[in-house]
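Comment thread on ticket #2218

A.B. wrote:
> Attaching the input chain for the structure job we discussed in standup.
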Amino acid sequence: MPFSFQIAATEGRARTGVLKTARGDIRTPAFMPVGTAATVKAMTVDQVASTGADILLGNTYHLMLRPGPERMERLGGLHKFMGWDKPILTDSGGFQVMSLAGISKVKEEAVTFSSHIDGSKHVLTPERSIEIQADRIGADISMQLDQCVAFPAEKDAARKAMELSIRWGARSKAQFGTREAQGLFGIQQGSTFEDLRRQSSEQLQEIGFDGYAIGGLAVGEGHQAMCEVLDYAPEMLPADRPRYLMGVGKPIDLVEAVARGVDMFDCVLPTRAGRHGQAWTWDGPMNLKNARFAEDQDPLDPAIEGPSSRYSKAYLHHLIRADEILGKVLLSWHNIAFYQALTAAMREAILHGRFESFRRDFHARHVSN
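C.D. wrote:
> Ran it. Output below, let me know if you need it in another format.
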């Protein structure tokens, strides 16, 4: 089956469609739960699938350290290894270039870094990143290797990182070649500078990718600054290709990004919040550690399929306060289910021409609480 993207409906800049892959369709807008080390933390793949997720994200940096790319290939690739038969997108390791700046060094040829696990030395080139993702791990969607800069960034530093990312993008594409059943995404960079992002977009399109990501956001700039970049960044990318906002974010971030033309998202927030006792709901975040839930017999959210409708807030409060593993599982499960319900609601709203109404209602309920 060819790798293709079809837009079913639009409302303003918001779009809904389907990204077709050999392992199944990805309905957009789509939220990808993050399976950093071949697992979505605290959840089984069956639990993840039950939430309606069409695709997971795997982390190249962590998987290349353990169990290792060659072992991954011998074990049949990431899908077989973790028991997930739907699509997987892998990041390239580029984000770790920034987040592990203290133990990494960027040069034209490659990024070199020390493992955060045992201090061992590693070299990651654009070519090696694609080899690991597409050939060893077996990702359905691979990402080019890029350099991301933290916020705030001096314009000269942002320009140099963007230009290096373009050169690495060309090398990533040359290594990837042309494949019918797998896709490769380029990554727009440029921090908060519109002219840099325009240059990045134009040069990425000259190289040619199956999809395009908006990188360099959710790195400390805040919601308002992110939205200001998204006012122009998505429309710089081809309308007939999926647009992926990397590492984002809170539910309000997703709604505002979809309103500006973004199709795909990933973030560790749902499961990280769940492990710390926070549940995301239609009325905003809820801290189940709070004593006011100790005798609350109502379910967390009866409209969300999964544990939300089966267990009381009092029980969830007890599990979290007692530091029981089950509490982390149930709240992670709920949060992933909520994010899938949110993207499903946005798809439905766009399809029926009522996304702006949905957006207003979401703000009224979510932001005011």
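A.B. wrote:
> Thanks. Noting for the ticket: The CA atoms of residues 3 and 323 lie 44 Å apart.
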